[in-house]
């Protein structure tokens, strides 16, 4: 039997729903504004007339994006770095997490200490750059995927997941039946670890897709720049063109750059928005179970 709500319960629900609604508006409206701004005349944006619905729709920004070779090149590069980098990240992270979860691994506490040590103490930007240079990885794809190939935080989450979900008795039973360590890892551990694998794919893929600092440091060729760097260059061009407009009145260039800025933000966000629904059902389970101490 459902108990009737008291006045205190009603007041609590009212305050709760009001706060949630306000937070929802604060999160959704900036995203909605960017979408509307990508199809709106920039003059309306500057004048503050764009609040909810655009008066004059224009697709010039998306047309410019779809016909700009550098943007397609950056999109291809970002996709390459994301797929290759995420594959390397997930393989190394899942392998390290599983190995460190095994109680029969000799010296696992030492390995764990060395990994955690790197979370608090790093070599710094200059020594890292010199190392990448000495390894011959400057201006190559490997400079975008090899450095930071393993996140220690993700290794800890993965290790905890294996400890919490794969009891030692399962390994013992498999060994009695003649299963080797490699076969147990590939045929039993990995299928049971699909939730944490999905979480790692999402974490690493989003990080690679949004990464631009490494490209600024290690990549000199414009043909290898990811989409985020190209977006950054367009934003810089947009800011720099304000001074030019005062001198030669190039308003059309300013409008094109403004429309492209919003359109590229939408286009660059699509892959992550497409990927997330497929991993959502694994995400909560894998993240929560992997974050609990077993």
From TrEMBL:
Q: Which SUPFAM superfamilies match?
A: MetI-like
* Domain named ABC transmembrane type-1: residues: 75-276
InterPro entries cross-referenced by the UniProt entry? MetI-like, MetI-like_sf
Membrane topology annotation: Multi-pass membrane protein
Which residue windows are transmembrane per the record? 12-32, 79-100, 112-132, 138-157, 184-206, 259-279
Localization, per the record, is: Cell membrane
Gene3D superfamilies, alphabetized: MetI-like
Protein name (Swiss-Prot/TrEMBL): Carbohydrate ABC transporter permease
